[in-house]
Description:
Aminopeptidase, 6 helices, alpha+beta, eight-stranded mixed sheet, 8 strands
Amino acid sequence: xxxxxxxxxxxxxxxxxxxxxxxxxxxxxxxxxxxxxxxxxxxxxxxxxxxxxxxxxxxxxxxxxxxxxxxxxxxxxxxxxxxxxxxxxxxxxxxxxxxxxxxxxxxxxxxxxxxxxxxxxxxxxxxxxxxxxxxxxxxxxxxxxxxxxxxxxxxxxxxxxxxxxxxxxxxxxxxxxx
Length: 178
């Protein structure tokens, strides 16, 4: 899911985590230029939340432009924007299949969306030049999760500071600072 993250780095990222069964949001870790990670413990599971430039995620500028034309009506993300994605730390090549990575307690999806929102808020406060947060949901359920997280940000964390951008396409969605 995040190239360059090995078992030793995972141990380092979660070294100061609270005991299993709690919610913990760790410090921002710069994995490489244009890519940051935030380790999160949610109940008995550890997650990495990644914040990467859309160009990094696409591979290069040309691929980003082709993706934007195909999936976002030509919309090009702003400079310093970030794609938000997350995975369990033990995820393998199946990370994009929701039925493989489900939460230990499915009924806690609302609380998990708040934890995801807390990580986004932490990133937004640390990187004020990041104007847009985008996501590519791999399922309708993930699209709802991201939308729920940003509604929570708007309602409880940073009221009025983000607004939706792009029409919901089921592929490429996002929010930007107002």
